[in-house]
Structure formats: C-alpha cells, structure tokens
Write a structure and sequence with these properties.
The structure is a homotetramer. By secondary structure, chain A is of the alpha+beta class. Chain A has a single domain, classed as Chorismate synthase, AroC fold (4-Layer Sandwich). Helices cover about 25% and strands about 20% of the residues of chain A. Chain A has eight helices and 18 strands. Chain A has a five-stranded antiparallel sheet with strand order 1-2-3-7-4, with helices on one face. The first copy, chain A, has a five-stranded antiparallel sheet with strand order 9-8-10-16-11. In chain A, helix 1 (about 35-45) packs across helix 8 (about 330-355) and helix 6 runs antiparallel to helix 8 (about 330-355). The longest helix of chain A is centred in the C-terminal third of the chain and has 26 residues, at about 330-355. Chain A is globular. The two termini of chain A are about 40 Å apart. Chains in contact: A-B, A-C, A-D, B-C, B-D, C-D. The interface between B and D is medium-sized, with 20 and 20 residues.
C-alpha cells in the first residue's frame, strides 16, 4: 500500500526498471478535460535519460500510451492508465549487482525487507519508477492550469557549491528549458554544466538543490492539522529518489532571524490581503495565503561512482564493487520535472479537497 | 479528513485551544500492553506551557484521562480515546484577535478557508492541538520500546545561531532533560537559555533546530515508493506548528560532497551488515538499514512578538497589531516531545505494516 | 484502523460499554452550519435503552456533549468531538460473562482475536458503540437536509413474520415516531408490539427488517467501481450489530422476475429523466438516478435469551449459560436511528465526494 | 478514488470495455510467492464471454500479461500490474447507445454524473471491468491457500425460481466446474441450463443467487467496528455489476426464528471451540469464529433484452430502444469467479491486517 499517493487526485505507480514496463493509474481526474499522449510525452522527454551530454547516455525512448480513461480526446472521469514499455534491458550490465550491494543504494535494504529483489538496474528502487509520477504530474499540471489558473514550475538553484539567482515570481518555463541543467540563471548554469562534465570524467557525481514554485494558488488550500500543504509537499518531495531534505519559505535559513525580522506583515494590495515579504513561502498554518508557494529540495550526489568501494555481498562477506553501466553524474536536471510533477499532484489533490468541504455559495465571510 | 495520521497505528486529533478540551483517538494499538495515565502524563508535562522560565507562563495542568481502550490496566486492541480539558481560558486576552489577523499566524488563512474561525488563542491552529499527538506518541514510544526494542529521542541542537554538539549514538533521555532547553550539550544549553531570556525581555522570539533519532530500528522498515520512511517522517515533522524544514542524514549539507565522499561503505560487523559512515541517516531507498535513524527539523521564530506590526483586519482594512498574552519566546524546548511523538507514531505504524507484509517464517534470505 | 468510516465526511468512534464513555470524532463537516447539542440529543433519545416498554429497561440518560468543532453555535470545519459518559455500570450483572462465552455473541471471537477483552456488557461489541454513529449521523442528516435537500428516513417493516405496508415515497418522520416499534403501518405496529412483549415474557427474542429511504438525492452521487452507492450503503448497514443481510431496490425478490419484467423504463416527467418503476432502488451502475433510494436490512433475533444454553468457558471446557441482565427482546425499534444515521453518513460522504470531482460550471451535458 | 479496494492487500482496477485494455494493480502482496500468468489465466477463462452456450457468444481471448511485480517467477513484494488488451471492439453494435439510455443500465447515471461517457459497450460500467478483479482475485486465492490454508469457493444456488441443494462444507471446485452453469447440484443445474437457454431464445434474461464459502479461516479475522468481515464482504459483493443483495449466515431467513432457535451453541470438539449449528455464517461480532464462512449474493436479471423498451435519449426526449449485440441471458455462471475473487480479496486483506495488529508470540490467551 505504499505505491499510492493522494486522496481525491490519486495515483498508483507500478513497474521495475527491468521487466514489462512501468506505469501509473490516475484516479479522480475530473471529466471533460482534453487529454492525449501529446500532453504527457513532452514531460517524459524532460525526464528521460540520454537527453543531453550531462545525463546518462542510456537511450530510453519512453513512449507513453494512454490505455484508459479518455474517450474522443477527453477525460471520462474514470481511471487513466498510462504505460511505458521497457526496452533497453541490458541485464549483463548489472550482473555484479546480483551478488553485491551497491553502497548508498537500496540493494541491501530491499534484500533485508523482502529477502528477494529484482537486482537488474535497481528494480523498483530505480529512478525509472518516476516515469509514472511524471506522466501523472503532466495531467495534474494541466488540470491546475486549465481549471484553477495555477502554474507549477521547478528549476535547479544549486549544484554542489554553485548557486544560482532566480526570481521566483517571474521565472518562466522557457527560462528553465533554455539550458540542459535547467537552471534559469544562465551564468550559473554554465558553471554547473562544466562541473557536472568534470565529475562525469572523474567517474564521480554531485548533488544539489531544486526549487519548486506554485503561482496563482488561491488562499485556502491545505488542510490542518496533518495534511498541511507543506506536510504533503514535504512527503511528496522526500518520496523522490535521492532526496535528503525539504524546506518551505525561509526554511533552515529562517532560524537566523528573530520573530520581528521573520514575520510577514499583511497589507491590502489590489483589493486583496497580501504579505509584504514572503518568508512563509505562501503557506500559513498549513493553508495557502495567496502568495507564491516555494520550497527547496536537496538531492544527494548520485551513489553510483566509477570507483572501487567497500561493500558486502549477498552471502554477507566483505568485498568491493566498482560502478559500471551508464549513469547520471547528477540527477538534478532530470529531477526538475519530477519535482514539478509531485508538487502538481499535491496541489491538484488539495484543489479537489478544497472544493469538497469549502467553497459554498451560501458561506459568508 | 486532515486530522487523521497513520495507517495501521492511526491517530485522530481533535480540539481547539478554547472550548471543551483537546484529545486524540488512537486506533490500531495491539492488545495486552500495559497502559495507564501514568505512561502518558510525563510526556504531556514535557510539552505543557509554564514548565520553566523560558516557556510561556500560562499555567495549564493538562491532566490526561484515558476514556476507552484499556481494561484492568492493559490495552484491549480497541480505540484508545484520551482527553485533556481546557481550563485556563482567558478569551479577553485574545479579543483583539477577533478583529485582526496576526502576522505569520494562521488567522488569515483559516478565515480564507472556512470564512469563520475560533479566534480565541488560535483555535485549531494553536499548539494546544499537539497535546493529542504527544499523548498518542507516548503510547507509540512504549509500543516501540517494549515490542520492538526501538528507542526514539529528540533534542535541541540549535537556537538561532547557537549550535550544540551531541553524540546521537549515545545521548540519553536524562541528558536531554538535564536542562530546561532540552539540549544535551550543557555549555550550548546555557548560552541558548540566556539568548531565549534576552529575547523574552525584548518582546522578541527565536527559532532553531530539533534533531530526532531512532535507535534499534531493524533493517526493513519503510515502504517504497511513496511511504518511504523519510517521506513519512518528513510529513510528520512538517505537520508540526512552526516547522519550516526537514532533512534526513546528511541533508542539505550533503550536497557539498561528491558521490565518492558521500557514500556509506558497507562492512560486516558483529555478524551484521553495517555501514562505516551514516550519511544515509539509517535509511536507504526509503527503508531502514539498521543504523541509527536521524533527522533535523527547523522551527521558525515564534510569530507572536510584543511589538506593533502592520496587518489587516477582518473588514480588510490596513491596521496594526501588538502581541499580548503569555507566549513562548522559543518553541524549541516544548517541540522536543512533539518531534519524539511524531517520529514514534511513524515508526510504530511502519513496524505494524512491516509485520503485515513481511516477516514470514517461510521466507528465505 | 477499523474504527473509522467514510472518506470526506469521516467518523471515528471509540468506547466500550463500560469504562469512561463512548464517543465519536467527525472530520470533514463543512463550516458555518448551525450546530448544538440540541441537534444531536433527540437522535440519541431515539436510540437509548429504556425508552419504552419493548426496549431494555436499562436507564441510560446518554447526555451528549460537543467538545470541539463548533464556535458560537456554528461548525468551524474542524473535527467535531462528541462524548457520552458511561453511568449505569453494573459489572456484577456481567460477572458470569467473564468466564463464559455467550452463544452467538462476540465474546469468543474477541477472545480469539485479542486474547483479552472487556467482558463487561460486551465491551466494544456492545450496541452502546452505536451512540457515536447516531450522534454523527444527526450531523450528517442536518447537512444533507440543509445543504442538499435530502431527507433520510428508516422504519420497521417486519418483525419475525409480521410484515407492514409502507409508502416509501410519502412516509414521514412523525408516522414513524407515532408508535414505539417505529413502524408507520399502525395495524402491523400493534401486532409487532404484542409479539415483542410476548417474547420478552417468554425470555426469548425476535429479529426483523428495517427499511431505509433517501429522498431528494440528485442524479450523480456514487462512485464506480468499488464505491458504488449500494456497496457503501451495504457496508454501512452490515457494520451494525446484529445485521445479517442487505438488499437494495428489488433485492432478493427481484430474481423472480425476468429482465423484461424487471427493467425500469425511462420517461421524461416534469422536465426530468425519471423511471416508471423503481426496482433499481434509485441506484443504477452504483450512481443515484434521482429516484428515491431504498434498501432493507435484516437484523437477527437478539442473542441474549433468558434460558440455559450450551456454551464453552474461557478455560475451554463445556458449560451452560443463562442470560441475565436487562436486554432488548428486539433491537428493531432502536435500530431505526442507527440505519438512518449510517445511511446519512454514506450519503453525506458521497455528496462531498461528488462536489470534489464533478459539478463544474464549465461542464457541458 | 472509487477504483481502489482493500487496505493492505489492495487493488486498483482501470479500463473501459472499449479502448486500449483493462487491468489491475495489486499492491501489498507478500514477496517470494511463486506467480506466473499460468496462475491467473484459468480464472479469467472462467470469467470470459463465449465460454459456453449459455453465455454471450462474444469471443474475447482475454490473455493476461503480468507487467511488473515478479522476478524469476516469484513475487517481489512490489506492485503487480496485470493487463488484458481489448480486441473484439465492434463499436457499430453500440452506435444506438450513443444516443439512447438503456433501461436499468448505467448509461443515464454516468451521463448525469460525468456529463460525458464512453458509450461503447458500457464503457467503465461494463462487466469487462471485472477482469482486473478476477486477475487480482487469483493472486489472493493463491496467497490464502498457500500461506493461510484457506479455500474460497463460489457456486450458483438459484436461477430465477430454480434452487439447488449444495453441501457447503464439502463442495469442491470440480463439482462446481462439472457443468456450465457452475451449480454443483447436477439435477438443478440441468434445469437451470434449460431455463437460461429458453430465456435466450425469448430474448429475455434471468437472475439468481451465487453462494460463496470460505473454509479454513482461523478464528480472529475481521476488525470491529466498521471493518467487520461481513461488512467488507458485503461491500465487495455489492460492488459487483448487477448485484442487488447480500446476506451472511442465516440472513433474511433467520428472522423467522426466535433467539433461542437461532443461537449457535458452543461446544468443544477436537480440542477447539466449535459451534453446533452455523447460523452465524462463521462470523460473530464481525470476527471469524473458525467455522465455514458463507454468504449469498443476489444478481438481478440482465438488463439487456432483445425487446423494444421505453426510454429517453441524450437530448432528453422519450424514445424506445431494442437490445442488440451479443449479451449474456444470465450473468450467474460468469459471476461465480467474480464472487470468489472479491471474497478472496477481502480475506487476504484481513489476513494481513490480522498479522499486523495481532498474532504476537508474547500474547497470553
């Protein structure tokens, strides 16, 4: 039961990195929304390996098929099943994994939990599982855009120690897509790309930070006390492979300020209640306040490195292992659509939940 | 539906800061565990206001009553209902809140969501809601200790810019409880206390970091892909009032390392698979690996400050508001039992979920 | 996790027949609905023991208290906690139950499941648990009536072999409440009452059928494929103590007809799509069709009889047991508010779920 | 969110009768169970159309593919995705359905709910959706058999007014499969078959009753108060297309008895607590008591008949419609594997839930 996410806009992903395929069932999407593979494929193309010189050279076409839930190009309100077949299986590249646990991977823990695992390419723990999330996220993003006027974006703001400056109120998708590292700060992007290339040549890897923003969320989304918007966003992000941290608004930095310095004063602006600053990150008490929602996700450096490392084998003896195969030296560029997708899934779910309990015409304010 | 947390070990909290009381229903606790109010009250005493000079002087006895789910001092396996009555209501202290939104509080967003709110002391958004969590957490901690040999602890490691050094493998509850700020590093604790007192006198507030650890968790807990242990811990922590960030293991700091530097090598030790370092924070691929689990939670500075601030009133006009009443200048000492409780709730839930699907005698490894 | 029912309008009940009390937490009720104990108490009075000569003479005042979720007489949108204290504990009346399993009661199965039970009055398996359901149902009924124009009613249509004739399109609450057996057919009611009195004198018991109806449900409620309206109604009813069967529309009788005879023809009437007959019971394909929803619930004869019966004791030896204490000779009159409540809970949940996914202004038909 | 069933053993079905295909994701199956298509296909063959002269002559091969969740012939503990492609699409057979609502079908209610529907062959409301349930049920049955020693069977006991006599304690799968109507009483089966053939020739249809039994369930499964075993079984059965009623144990008939007559006396037998009679249907207080569980499900006569019937079209005008295409004159034979599957899904879920909370070695009894 750990493969389902969301309440009213709910996804269930399935599939291992090797085997028949990977996919997702989206349950709860409202009817009558135009939808075809053309809405999904571009997002999968942003996620897929082999898209640039700084991602893994594995070629995976990742062609999506919608198997149910649409009719004559529109959603039916029934479950939308989507699938991508697995094609580029090279199990021989992984044969050593059958015997040895890769350090800081999930090999050992899957073995400990299930006593049995698909060792080919990481099986279920492979980033390939996120195909289902990104396909579902494309639908959630479209729903948010068309029915709620909400835009969700993500971009790279840090690779190792290289940081970028991005205006989260104005950044556009085309700025993000303007370079292969998906960092809208062109100068920083160039340095990041050089660093990643250097790491690849060294057989090493790096991590970094992806920032996500949601603009246009009206006041009132998010449900106290456990399903606060930041709690659901946090869970969504921390369920992504390689993520190690999440912060919203001022986050960890905010603790350097006192309460007086940190508080977001309210002022009326354009007939609406607005905050002068936005250290809250668009969320107060777990509920959106109408300001831009923003958060940051830390991704650790990729665990697969092309160097001999100490490890243990399945017979529980010490051994060593050297990474092989075709791996990303940095997950960040491909993590961008994953972060967008997970954020969109959380927001679409809360949009529908808000419709259910609130938004009554007879309510007074 | 946002007031329930957990799957198999599941809690539902209820109650506003003013009104009849606050409480919790715990569903799913196994039967035949010894349990009485004496197991719960000490944890509530760690949480309650007025416990020391650096917390709010509000006096709330917070006497818990177990209303169901036990018989002759043992759990029945039926829902355990617990309640604390509200006693110290001074609505006049809050009358200005009826008209004005406190900056960086939930007043405005509750108004925007529900069109109506209990403005006395924050209503449902008050930290008083966490009484139910801490009472339930006491049961979860006992279950983990007695049936699984797992110990959950939390402590303060940072207040504003004052940081502590704590050995997370060896720290004990009595070290944490040895001072009123709940920081086991005595020297740092003293500086933290002085800072908080200074802030109180200045009518200002500070935030900081609480670290949580779980020792003795066996390999195998946590469920891919969405209910990874860190995802559920993250959601739990980010659902706490005033929390702004969560990180597990190396967290945000880890991105300064390369993959080679960051990886945790495996070695056999004492007949078990162990990691030489623990940057993973005891979790790999969302599943515990048998090492100590640790994570950090950022709490923002308390929003209530005794200074005039710009804000808006319920008629949507600009105004100003100055904090009144008796408030904590720093939530950290009282957040410690909250963090412990939420961590224990997540782990108890995963302990039971692991029993359900895994742990078969006939399984080979 | 078996003590929670519903998705968006969700209840969690707690409490044993003996102990501190029984209660319920209602999560998901929309805000701004007028609500006080005066809305709840009349329903509990319909449920409580001792209300007439054909129910158990146990006196339980069952005074309800709303502990949270309302403010100044209106709902807040936060969890509504309600509680009834236990007062009339006479454990000595149950002392034999500590040692012996009552036939066709839950004593043995609770023992088998938990290895431990509150043997006083049935503990959690007591009908006293339904207080929480009826209290929550009163809120659901009010929500359905005020916000959706839906009326939910139930009444007795059969006691043992005595059957009643009731016009389900026109029956009113006052017809139901016009006699103590809650059967709107006065002549049948009189015979039922005489039969129940005879059974009580004979130390025996009887069962029967309660019919539930919901009028005014608009077309479109209910969610394929698993949360069909009849599936959720069926689960709700079969979760009531002593229920053994559920049928909707033509039910078991309908299988005597052929398809031609059974089908409900559609005709336009009053500008709406209507059915000429209503063998579907107002539900087609799991979704309401705008006709009156109706269903029947079978309740077995009460298991406690004042005669010696063969049974087994907790040491697993054969023995005999004779019922003692004050018991209902027939649960039907008190089951009526329970059936109404559970039906209202299902419909309120589906009303909110329908709002969430459907009902878009931009939808064409 | 209505397309998921179960808690720990959880399925999500997807797919319309026409479109890419239909399928299911099974989440929560324990690892290390041998599983291949050969375990699934025979159950789908029992469900598929065209299998005999009394089912629809539509030919659907319904070849299942396992797309994930297994490795080297064993389950991984990860989601098992299964799919059957749609092949026999003849939309022209359904073109009239695009314009007119079939009486007692789901055409109108889907239209009312979603404002839009796949009118080809009923879309999501088609019995074709149950392919996913039967495929998942095959896994649940295998799990119950291999890990818990539980056998689940179903058979036809009534078609219209023809009733069968079946010994539910001894009936075997081969008895059920010995004739095309799946009724183990050979004489009754012959009469049923003749009746169904006569109905087909008359362009009419019939309904009936399927009985389900589960043998070998240990005492203790089922969770009070809402997830009682009969409540979950009832919901499961009432979610099947065309089902109108459910009863467990003595059911509706039981109300003809008094409490003295109805009660199941306990006696020790073979060292176990047994009941002398089994009017409880193997469940007391919502929990299994170790006796055979049995229940009956009423299926209405098939709504599609080859006669002109009054109805309404999508422009909301009166019209008539005559059934066309290839339909079952009686769903009962094909409903048998559906009932078995849903029962197995409920029991597998409760088996795992029981493991989670109960079954502790340290428990005393």
């Amino acid at each position: 039961m750990g493969n389902t996410f969301g309440n009213l806009f709910r996804i269930t992903t399935w599939g291992e990195s090797h085997g028949g395929g990977v996919g997702v069932v989206v349950d709860g999407c409202p009817p009558q929304m135009e939808l075809s593979e053309a809405d999904i494929q571009p997002e999968l193309d942003r996620r897929r390996p082999g898209q640039s010189k700084i991602t893994t050279p594995r070629k995976e076409a990742d062609q999506v098929r919608i198997l149910s839930g649409t009719f004559e190009g529109r959603t039916l309100g029934t479950p939308i099943s989507m699938m991508v077949s697995n094609t580029d299986a090279r199990p021989e590249a992984y044969s050593e994994m059958a015997e040895k646990f890769r350090p800081s991977h999930a090999d050992y823990t899957y073995f400990a939990k299930y006593g049995f695992r698909n060792w080919q390419g990481g099986g279920r723990s492979s980033a390939r599982e996120t195909i289902g999330r990104v396909a579902a996220g494309a639908i959630a993003k479209k729903l948010l855009r068309e029915r709620f006027g909400v835009e969700v974006l993500a971009f790279v703001t840090q690779v190792k120690n290289i940081t970028a400056k991005v205006d989260r109120e104005r950044v556009k998708l085309k700025d993000i897509e303007s370079n292969i590292v998906r960092c809208p700060d062109a100068a920083a992007a160039e340095r990041m790309i050089r660093l990643i290339e250097r790491m690849r040549r060294a057989g090493d890897s790096v991590g970094g930070i992806v920032e996500g923003v949601a603009r246009g969320v009206p006041p009132g989304w998010g449900i106290p006390v456990f399903d606060r918007l930041e709690a659901d966003l946090g869970k969504a992000m921390l369920s992504l492979p390689a993520s190690k941290g999440f912060e919203v608004g001022s986050g960890f930095e905010g603790i350097q300020l006192t309460g007086r310095e940190h508080n977001d004063a309210f002022r009326m602006r354009g007939g609406r209640v607005r905050t002068v600053s936005n250290r809250s990150g668009g969320i107060q008490g777990g509920i959106s306040n109408g300001e831009t929602i923003y958060f940051r996700v830390a991704f650790k450096p990729v665990a697969t490195v092309m160097h001999e490392q100490d490890t243990v084998d399945v017979t529980l003896h010490n051994t060593t292992l050297k990474g092989r195969g075709r791996h990303d030296p940095c997950v960040l560029p491909r993590a961008v659509p994953m972060v967008e997708s997970m954020a969109a899934l959380v927001l679409a779910d809360h949009a529908l939940r808000h419709r259910a309990q609130n938004d009554w015409p007879e309510h007074k304010r």
